[in-house]
Amino acid sequence: MPGGGLTTIGFDADDTLWQNEQFFRATERRLVELLAGHAGDADVTARLLEAERRNLAVYGFGIKGFTLSMVETAIEVSGGTVPAAVIAEIVAAGREMLAHPIEILPHARETLERLAGSYRLVLVTKGDLFDQERKLAGSGLADLFDAVEIVSDKSATTYERVFSRHGDGPGRAMMVGNSLKSDIVPAIEAGGWGIHVPHDLTWVLEHVEPPLGSPRFRQIVHLGELPALIETLE
Q: How does pLDDT run across 69-115, given as a tens digit for each residue?
């Protein structure tokens, strides 16, 4: 059969189906401006990344953890003297991110519509449950998925569980996403296909080397190329 026995396709959400990272970058620039009187641009950015890295195990992925990391950064770079008004602006910036309209990426809808019915489509996304549910509802894409998995992190074990629960196991499944670290490498480690769709912006903590030696790794320019790629798999 087309797709070499493929029955299940997992899709990442943020920066694969809709825009996400650009809003984090814009809010980070706003933080740099707010703290200009306390530290230089590079220092604020570095301290924020350090706080995010430190807080992942506590707050997980998502806007709420990012907002708390910005608050911590403001307190740290100011030596505890940051005005309450600045903290209020940081919290407001996080709230604005949580209310931002969903911007679907090119080719996302038509690709899902083309594959739906021929394969089991599973949305596999990590982050805050409430925010991810909000974005999925706002995207208008929810009805195209056979299942939705919102997870705290993505690992080979995650994909083994998800593709066994909603499909015929990882060996007959594919994961499509923009993050090599979260979407591609662990899916291949689980025994599935990993299809990388690069995005112009990728969070630095998601950077790893592509698994070029794997026979189950592919890269496409955009989602519109996915159906044709599937046809070539043996």
A: 999 999 999 999 999 999 999 999 999 999 989 999 999 999 999 99
Provide DSSP, 146-175.
Answer: SEEEEES---HHHHHHHHHHHSS-GGGEEE
Tokens of 87: 């903290």
Read off the DSSP letter of residue 193.
E
SS3 per residue for 41-54: HHHHHHHHHHHHHH
pLDDT < 70: residue spans in the chain: 1-4, 201, 203-206, 234
Query: Nearest 10 degrees: CA dihedral of 85, 129, 143, 189?
Result: 120
- pTM to 2 decimals? 0.89
Gap between the Cα atoms of 204 and 202, Å rounded: 6
155 is written with which tokens?
A: 């690992």
- Would you say 121 and 143 are in contact if contact means Cβ atoms under 8 Å apart? no
CA distance 34 to 93: 11
